[in-house]
Amino acid sequence: MTGRRVLLLGSSHICRLDKFMLQNKEYKNFNWRDDFELIQTCLFGIGGGKITSSRHCRRWEEKLSSERPDHLLVQFLGNDLDDPELNIDLVHEISDKMVAMLTMWVQRYNLQKITICKLMPRASVRYADSVTHYNSMVMQCNNYLEQLVQSVPSWSLARLRGVSSELPAFHLLQDGVHLNNLGLKLYYRSIRGAILRMLA
What we know:
The chain is an alpha/beta fold. The protein has one domain (5-199): Rossmann fold, CATH 3.40.50. It has six helices and five strands, in the order βαβαβααβαβα. The chain has helices at 12-23, 54-67, 78-81, 88-109, 131-149, 181-199; strands spanning 5-10, 40-45, 71-75, 113-117, 155-158. The protein has a five-stranded parallel β-sheet with strand order 2-1-3-4-5, sandwiched between helices. α1 crosses α6 (181-199) and α4 crosses α5 (131-149). The protein is globular and about 45 Å long. InterPro entries: SGNH_hydro_sf (IPR036514).
């Protein structure tokens, strides 16, 4: 097994996952057992976090610098896509910006592996033209990210089983964006599985 320190960075989904695990003993610290007990995980999310915000990127990097993990898992871009100018060019622009940032972090902090989580659809948007348009661009973004990570052997794209592609409304809170307890359980399992694959 490679290094065992894993940092999870993102926006409110990571914040809420962290809180969910702290409040439910059976999920605390991903419930690692046996040989996996030595895995060290740290979660850091910024509510409303965007990679287009220099302040948010600085806070994420400060956490990365203080934790010095072996591996990094990120859940980015969902808030960046909720934009009135959302189109395929913007999808490519912010995806490329994220990849450039992650590439810099790999070089600066000697990260061994990077896992990027696929974006999740929403049932409500604040700035994009419509939910349908937003979710269509989410699919385009996920497809584009899949192409980008194929060229980097130490990078991977994590599919969030049950909470990506077509997200059932009953997995969401009334705000149409954040996961309820059922959705968080599925999200937890997907993230836990992604970490194990990263460490394999």
